[in-house]
Amino acid sequence: MTDATGIERFIKPKYAPTGKGAPFSIPPTPPGVINLALNENHYGASPKIGERLANYPDLNLYPNAKELQKLIAGYAGVAEEYVVPANGGSQILDLIANAFVGDGDEVIHCPPTFHVFAQRAQFHGGSIVSVPRDENFAVNVAAVKAAITDKTKIIVIVNPNNPTGTLTSKKDILEIVDTGVPVLLDEAYAEFAGETVIDLVAKYDNLMVMRTFSKWAALAGMRVGFAVVAPVIAQSIARITMPFFIDQISAVAVQESLKDIDYLMGNVKLIVEQRERLSAELGKFNFLKPYPSAGNFVCCAVTTGDAKQIQQAVAARNIRISAVDVGQGGPTAIRITIGKPEHSDALLKALQEVAVELNLS
Ligand SMILES: Cc1ncc(COP(=O)(O)O)c(C=O)c1O
After folding, report:
1. DSSP letter string over 54-72?
2. Torsions phi, psi for 242 (to 5 deg)
3. Among the atoms of ligand 1, which is closest to the Cα of residue 186?
4. Which of 6, 73, 104, 202 is most buried by a 10 A CB count?
């Protein structure tokens, strides 16, 4: 920003405006459009939240983060001092990147994978060391270990992985944790996989887990996530956050979601069943090859045709899906969020039409 003449010359170079404000970059979903691109939960949040908030008397009072921490600790099955609540899992990713990564530090990640931690780590001054997953998208454990240097501050593993849906075994995770380097497990989709390593955090102080209420509890619009980390790490993160940084509405939403956990987990089960049905149906298209998924989405290799073109042709039929890059270069796959059965039906119909339109059969 050396040639800036306006007010922006006073802004720190690190925050120089780019014209691409991340918070405003995702287009809203117009009415009538089915959005299967953001891995949202189409069953919606617990109706108990709305009922409780309709008559909630205490909005004039500052929020009680301790109460939220306690509720989350109960859900996660850990002691309270291990829990860091935040405004969405994304904020946890940023807080951990901020606490651990500075100029000249290295972060190891395993693409194709969710990019937010790498982006935040870069923002805080780190450089990213990519250790690609193998041809089945399994983490290449030996290569991850070989990539560790004395500058490595964190190894991040998304499990189940987004966008591929791949699940990494506890054994592989522990082999990496055994190196002693801090390991961050992004478990945003753990409830759909039925697997977690939260129970191991008390044993390994270099193991950190990020979780969210966005997916299983359908609270993406509310922004509630948390970390399970060694108490000493929780105390460091507390030095970055401000008092009262989580609102009371989120605490109420978590409380009501946990009271309604059977309903919400019932919806998780329906999504998992739908994932298996939709994957089987997608496999019948000869231009798609679905990968096994443990998340609330399914990723398919596009074996004939172009992923971006398919995405656009599906979008013309009022359904949003994602074209994703899972190999070298441009989009080679599509990722589809699992919705309700009627969303799968609409998508399958759209894909049949697209197959004819783009001559893919
Ligand atoms: C792998 C992964 N991690 C973290 C997040 C962030 O979730 P949130 O900030 O909504 O809690 C997402 C959201 O899609 C995700 O896919």
Report:
1. HT---TTSPP-HHHHHHHH
2. -95, 155
3. 3
4. 73
Domain count for the chain = 2
CATH code of 255's domain? 3.40.640.10
Residues 235, 289, single domain; the answer is no
Looking from the CA of residue 212, the nearest atom of ligand 1 is 11
Q: Is the pLDDT of residue 18 over 90?
A: no
Q: Whose CA is nearest to atom 12 of ligand 1?
A: 188
Ligand 1 atom 13: the closest Cα is on which residue?
188
Q: Give the closest residue (by CA) to ligand 1 atom 2.
A: 188
Structure-token pair, residue 278 = 């939709």
Kind of pairing between the strands at 207-212 and 127-130: unpaired
Domain shared by 141 and 72, yes or no: yes
* pLDDT of amino acid 23: 61
The yes-or-no verdict on residue 17 having pLDDT over 90 is: no
Tell whether 129 and 242 lie within a shared domain: yes
Domain final residue pick, 207, 230, 259: 259
148: three-class secondary structure by DSSP:
coil
Tell me whether residue 194 is in a domain: yes
**Residue range 137-171, pLDDT digits in tens:** 999 999 999 999 999 999 999 999 999 999 999 99
pLDDT higher than 90, residue 16? no
- Considering the domain architecture, whether residues 123 and 154 belong to the same structural domain is answered as yes
Is residue 225 lining ligand 1, measured as CB closer than 6 Å? yes
The CA 188 to ligand 1 mean position distance, Å, reads: 6
Q: Are 200 and 171 in contact (CB under 8 A)?
A: no
**Locate tokens 């998208």: which residue?**
137
- The span from the CA of 302 to the CA of 300, in Å, is 6
Query: CB of 112 closer than 6 A to ligand 1?
Result: no
Residue where one domain finishes, among candidates 226, 259, 292:
259
Residue 19, domain extent: 7-43+262-357
Look up the CATH number of the domain holding residue 344: 3.90.1150.10
CB of 188 sitting under 6 A from ligand 1: yes
